[in-house]
Amino acid sequence: MNNKHDAEKAQISPVRSQESTSPEILKAEPREQEVFQISEDGVDFRTVTWPRASIIFLKILFATGVLSIPAAMYEIGAVGGALILLGFGMLNCYVGTIQGDFRNKHPSCHSVADMIGFIAGPAVKELFGGLYIVAWVLCCGAGIQGTSVAFNALSENAVCTVWFSFISMIVVAMSASVRTFQNLGWVGWAGFISIYAAVFIVVVAVTQRDRPAAAPREGPFEFGYHAIGATTFHGGMVSTTTIFVSSAGTSAFVPVIAEMRRPQDFRKALYCCMGFVTVSYITFASVIYAYCGHWIASPALGSAGPTVKKVAYGIGLIGLIVSGAFYCHVAAKYLFVRILRNSRHLQANTIVHWSTWLGCTFGLASIAFILAQAIPIFNYLVSITGSLCFAPLALCVPAWIWLYDNSEYRRGGILKQILYGLHILLFLFGCFLCVAGTYGSVQSIINAYHNGTIGSVFSCKDNSGTVLGSTGGH
């Protein structure tokens, strides 16, 4: 056994050695250390390879977001929706590189909150740390909600939706309790294939129908397809932030990079993920909207009729559970590291270690369950998450840390000054999206409560699968 252990260490050692001499690590200040150290008698978090990081990134992004994009296209139109998808995909890829490069330059940063703390102090760090937890808890709530809709569809509403949500919360919390991204990545493969196959089935199914499944079976009807949509301000902001958040989860990539064997390889994983996700989003959402018009369900898996809906949710159930588990894991990992950082309990298999970790996963999943019941329409939950949380985290924070690392550009040549100004605009755009998007989401939720689309909190009335055409849209 000792010889085997020594052989394994000999195989891992060159990787560690190569990592420690990377240019990014050498540029770090001497006082900075990686959050997770090599551990022989505890859990070793630094085990994620870049291909495994790719699938983790893919599963974080290609999840609940893709289920809400077709409905968003109804508000802003097919051309506008496709252009916004492409634009945000490229922008979110760019800000992902900013975050990864900053983390590698400052390896003590485990999250975007640590990054802000590095440049703005502990008070601002705690503010963004709280926002980070809220963001991923809301995403976990969307995952729980999507899973409960799947249970409803498969059981034909056998029990109250609240009970299905509670069951979903337990399953998500148990799955999220896997301690390392490397091990969670194994179920990531199953989850990604599951949800991708489910969406693909719906895409194919809607093209085989003479008319949308939710439209009247006979006679003329308003299809509701527009190249350029005409909508209200708050409706447009809900749709824009829904599309934005579908690829804005780059803040969750930072703790994954912190668990990579070679953090400097993160760009390989990032580019593979963002390229694949952006192309898939544009293709799938455009086809579903082109064949369903405004007769789209939210989540989109219910758009091809009851039979296909059951098939899609049956196949996609694992993916929905894994999505919620990933989101819960990201939030719990931040809180866990925040509590036990610089303590031997962070990586040792102690009672304190396990009780803290399980307390984080089950506690945050419980909060996500409550929030999902308070905002029981799927696309509104996704939208308010994007505007209130991810606009600051995915746009303002990267712009801020870039300005910090490149302060000399302000007094450089004309091209450097232009680049510096563009990052100031990026920061201001994040602020605008946060304020305007939150206003639009809150107003839409108020309107939905007012017209009865949403029932009372914790009621058994489920509208997560509402077809837009049946309610006149948002």
From TrEMBL:
GO molecular function, one term: L-amino acid transmembrane transporter activity
Keywords: Membrane, Transmembrane, Transmembrane helix
Region described as Disordered: spans on this chain: 1-26
Record's bilayer topology term: Multi-pass membrane protein
Superkingdom field: Eukaryota
Stretches that traverse the bilayer: 55-72, 78-95, 130-151, 158-178, 184-207, 269-291, 311-330, 351-371, 377-403, 424-442
InterPro entries named in the record: AA_transpt_TM
Location of the protein in the cell: Membrane
UniProt GO cellular component terms: membrane
Claim: Transmembrane helix is one of the keywords in the record: yes
A Pfam family reported for this protein in Swiss-Prot or TrEMBL: Aa_trans
Predominant cellular place of this UniProt entry's protein: membrane
Ranges annotated as biased composition (Polar residues): 14-23
Span of domain Amino acid transporter transmembrane: 47-442
Keyword S-adenosyl-L-methionine attributed: no
Stated family: Belongs to the amino acid/polyamine transporter 2 family.
Name of the protein in its database record: Amino acid transporter transmembrane domain-containing protein
Organism: Knufia fluminis
